[in-house]
Design brief:
about 290 residues, 2 domains, alpha+beta, extended, 5-stranded mixed β-sheet, Heat Shock Protein 90
Amino acid sequence: MGIALRSSDKIFFIRSIIAFSIAMCLLAAFGILLWEYSGESKIWVIVSIVLASFIGGYLSVSYTLSSLFKTNRFLDILLKDTLHELNIPLSVINANLQMLQAEEEDEKKIKRLGRIDLASKDLYTLYKEVDYYIKKEIQEDVREKFYLDELICGVVEKQKEMADGVEINYDVYHIEIFADKHGLAKVISNLVHNALKYNKDHQAIRIFQEEENLVIQDHGVGMSEAELFLAFDRYYQVDTTKEGYGIGLSLVKAYCDEFKIPLRINSQKNVGTDVILDISHLLNKK
C-alpha cells in the first residue's frame, strides 16, 4: 500500500529533483568545456570539477532543505505557542473544578467531579511532559531546587495505584536537591515500577538513604550476573512474560549518564535487587 503525499510534499520533492538535475547538468557542461580547452593542464580540470562538485552539492542541498527547515521552524513555534496557551484553559478548569467540589453535596455528582479531576490531572501531566521535552530539546537548563522527600512521596503515591497490595516504604531526609526534577522522578518511578513488576510474595519495597546514596530495594526475583550484564540494554527483560517493552532501565541509565549520577546494581537471583544512586553532587549544600 502506497503512502499518500500532501500537495506541499509533492511540490517539495519535485523542486528537489529539478534543482539537483539542473545542478548536475551545469556541472557536466562545465566539465566538458574545461576538458575541451584544457590542453596539457588536465589536472587542473579534475581539481576544478571536484571543487565545483562540492559547491554545486552544497548549493543543491541548501536549496532543497530550505523548505524543510522553514517547516520545522514553523512547527516548533506553533508547538511552543500552543503549549503556552494550553496552560490557561487547564488552570481555568482546575480552579472551577475545585469550587464545584467544595460546594457539591450529592454523592453521585461528587464521584463524577472526582473522575473529571483525575482526567484534568492526567491532561496536566501530559502538558508537563511535553513542556519538559521541549525545554530539553532546546537545551534549556531544566534543573531546579526541590526537596527529596517530597519528590519521593509524590512518586510513591502514584505507584501505589499499581502496587496491588505491595507496600512501598520510604525513609529519606528532608534535604534540598538541585537537579532535573521531572527526570529524577521518572528515574525513581521506573525503578519502583520494576521492583513491583518483579516482586515476589508481595514483599515490601524500600526506598531509603545511605549517607549520600539513594537506594531502591526489593526482595523479588533478582538477577544473575549474566542478566545484570544485559540489564541496561534497551528492550531487554528479565522475564519476557511480563508486560512492557524493557526500556525502563535503559532510560534510567541514560538519565544518570547525562547528569553524571553514579549508578550501580547489587542483585542476587531469587533474593532481590538494590539499585543505588549516588546523589552526592545533586545535594544543594550551603
